[in-house]
Write a structure and sequence with these properties.
33% helix, single chain, Rossmann fold, 2 domains
Length: 259
């Protein structure tokens, strides 16, 4: 394997890497502080499309993690960037929360249930049968199907919750149309994020806790990858995948000195 160039830019997942169930993971504050002091480009990423970047900034600040809003990149922002490139000034029927609707408003999209260009499915805690029925009928009527991310479950203090990917599967079953997923593991999310901070994949690293999204997206985008064991993936599960991360570390604390 060819020797990689030194890491100049860092991308890191949020849940399972920096925080866990609303509590900072030990070392996360030191890692973010070191990044900010170094002046290196960095992004905190999340496949969750519920919150705006400003919402997430406030949430992280309350936990003692000072991340500028421009250093936060969500699947909602990646989806909006994709749609703005594909069909500027288009229309969409949206199932999702403020993170997604705000991102689409900001690129000049009109949100409508009347003959939209796209049906866009994102994360929400209030999926309704009525909204899913509307989505199915609009897709059958010709709307293109876009989904923010493929995660089938999401974390909660009570246990896993059905997430965007699970609802997308329901709509796909009813329409026989598979969505285009803009979020991880699609390397599109990584590349648009890298472009947003003026970084290059050959000198960038991706830190994540999931093999199927974080590590896969980083690998496919051409970045060095770090799997931390503070989230969903255990060391025993790594060999189940046909690919491996570039590095495996116990937690984000092990990477502070790498910045």
């Amino acid at each position: 394997m060819a020797e990689r160039k030194p890491i100049e830019s860092w991308l890191t997942d949020m849940d399972g890497v920096l925080i866990h169930e609303g509590v900072p993971i030990p070392g996360a504050d030191s890692f973010i502080k070191r990044l900010r002091e170094s002046g290196r480009p960095f992004l905190v990423l999340t496949n969750n499309s519920i919150y705006t970047a400003r919402d997430l900034q406030a949430r992280l600040t309350r936990m003692g993690l000072e991340v500028p809003v421009e250093n936060i990149w969500t699947s909602a922002l990646a989806t909006a960037k994709f749609l703005d490139d594909q069909r500027p000034g288009g229309t969409a029927y949206v199932i999702g929360e403020a993170g997604l609707t705000t991102a689409l408003h900001d690129i000049g999209y009109v949100l409508t249930d009347h003959d939209p260009d796209y049906v866009v499915l994102g994360e929400t805690r209030t999926y309704s049968f009525e909204a899913m029925t509307k989505a199915v009928r609009l897709i059958n009527g010709g709307a293109r199907f876009i989904c923010t991310n493929p995660d089938e479950t999401g974390p909660s203090t009570e246990g896993p919750l059905p997430a965007t990917g699970a609802v997308a599967a329901l709509i796909t079953k009813a329409t026989k149309r598979s969505p285009y997923f803009a979020g991880k593991p699609n390397p599109l999310m990584m590349r648009t994020g890298l472009n947003a901070i003026g970084a290059h994949s050959e000198t960038s690293a991706m830190i994540g806790d999931r093999m199927d999204t974080d590590v896969l997206a980083g690998l496919e985008a051409g970045m060095e990858t770090f799997l931390v064991l503070t989230g969903l993936t255990t060391r025993a599960e790594i060999d189940q995948y046909p690919f491996r991360p570039s590095n495996i570390v116990d937690s984000i604390a092990d990477l502070v000195e790498r910045v």
